[in-house]
């Protein structure tokens, strides 16, 4: 399949129950491996200052299930959550991957889930202990990021700081791109949709770097606003707004951040492609945005009245 056909598939896949994007991706990956002699995508996945919501969302990927992604698409070298190795054995896997990448034998994709705390000498997030002391999230990202072929910031905390960097930000947390002097693929969301993550990994394996928007997000999934494709858009155009939660009209008056939020939630849907926040009668809170959550609060205040519009996330 040509790259442009794959991208068209990502944008226009006929979503609905039982029609997950991942179900179309895996056969392409297998064809790629068989036809070109290519292997799986080597992945190192570390968690830093986060809630763990993105790996939970990833576990909800359907057709294929997560075990099929692991067995047929990616080679998971290291993961705080999914690996069996512990302690020194786990750290040895990281060291070996770094050495092989430095020798040009096998470069990996670094997936970072969570923000990077700079305060307290980085010790607000320690991912491991070594003979020389704590391995902080900052040190780990700098250490592993230098030899990675690609770096994926998974979730809004990793991409932009997110809730971990919300005011008053006592940990001085920042996004991955703020500590690495290189291109970072920001797959934002709190949490991410499984298709956004699986689709991005598939693109890296099959075609390399995807087209990114000005915020470093794959245009495949963040190319238009929630507002543009919202099923309640016609109410907005007619200036007919909901007065309370549960009303069927446009929820702009109740704090919906869809007009400034770039994501394909209205037609991709969530939970095996069944629903999404507006369909469940709650406003979009703009969780993919660089200024989330500060730029979205108070959550039920109309967009122009949100306090976060006056400042930047993570700043007092």
UniProtKB/TrEMBL annotation:
Keywords: 3Fe-4S, 4Fe-4S, Iron, Iron-sulfur, Metal-binding, Oxidoreductase, Signal. GO terms for cellular component: [Ni-Fe] hydrogenase complex; cell envelope; ferredoxin hydrogenase complex; membrane. It is found in: Cell envelope. Its main location: other. InterPro entries: Cytochrome-c3_hydrogenase_C (IPR027394), NADH_UbQ_OxRdtase-like_20kDa (IPR006137), NiFe-Hase_small_C_sf (IPR037148), NiFe_Hase_small_N_sf (IPR037024), NiFe_hydrogenase_ssu (IPR001821). Residues 54-204 form the NADH:ubiquinone oxidoreductase-like 20kDa subunit domain. SUPFAM superfamilies: HydA/Nqo6-like. Pfam families: NiFe_hyd_SSU_C (PF14720), Oxidored_q6 (PF01058). GO terms for molecular function: 3 iron, 4 sulfur cluster binding; 4 iron, 4 sulfur cluster binding; electron transfer activity; ferredoxin hydrogenase activity; metal ion binding. [3Fe-4S] cluster binds at residues 265, 284, 287. The keyword Aminoacyl-tRNA synthetase does not apply. Its cofactor is [4Fe-4S] cluster; [3Fe-4S] cluster. [4Fe-4S] cluster 1 binds at residues 157, 190. [4Fe-4S] cluster 2 binds at residues 227, 230, 250, 256. It comes from the Bacteria. NCBIfam families: hydA. Heterodimer of a large and a small subunit. Belongs to the [NiFe]/[NiFeSe] hydrogenase small subunit family. This is Hydrogenase small subunit.
């Amino acid at each position: 399949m040509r790259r442009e056909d794959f991208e068209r598939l990502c944008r226009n896949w006929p979503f609905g129950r039982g029609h997950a994007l991942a179900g179309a991706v895996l056969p392409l990956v297998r064809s790629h491996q068989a036809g070109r002699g290519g292997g799986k995508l080597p992945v190192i996945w570390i968690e830093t200052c986060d809630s763990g919501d993105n790996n939970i969302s990833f576990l909800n990927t359907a057709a294929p299930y997560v075990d099929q992604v692991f067995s047929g698409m990616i080679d998971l070298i290291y993961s705080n959550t999914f690996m069996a190795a512990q302690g020194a054995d786990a750290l040895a896997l990281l060291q070996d991957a770094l050495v092989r990448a430095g020798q040009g034998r096998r470069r990996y994709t670094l997936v970072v889930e969570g923000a990077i705390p700079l305060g307290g000498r980085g010790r607000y997030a320690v991912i491991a202990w070594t003979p020389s002391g704590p391995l902080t999230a900052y040190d780990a990202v700098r250490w592993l990021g230098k030899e990675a072929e690609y770096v994926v910031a998974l979730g809004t905390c990793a991409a932009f700081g997110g809730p971990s960097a919300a005011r008053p930000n006592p940990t001085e947390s920042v996004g991955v791109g703020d500590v690495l002097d290189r291109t970072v693929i920001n797959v934002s969301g709190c949490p991410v949709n499984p298709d956004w993550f699986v689709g991005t990994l598939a693109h890296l394996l099959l075609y390399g770097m995807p087209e990114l928007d000005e915020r470093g997000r794959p245009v495949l999934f963040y190319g238009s606003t929630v507002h543009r494709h919202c099923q309640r858009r016609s109410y907005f155009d007619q200036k007919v707004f909901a007065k309370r939660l549960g009303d069927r009209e446009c929820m702009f008056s109740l704090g919906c951040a869809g007009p400034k939020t770039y994501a394909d939630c209205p037609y991709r849907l969530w939970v095996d492609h069944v629903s999404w926040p507006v369909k469940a009668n709650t406003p979009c809170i703009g969780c993919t945005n660089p200024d989330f959550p500060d730029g979205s609060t108070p959550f039920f205040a109309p967009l122009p009245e949100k306090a976060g519009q006056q400042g930047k996330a993570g700043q007092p």
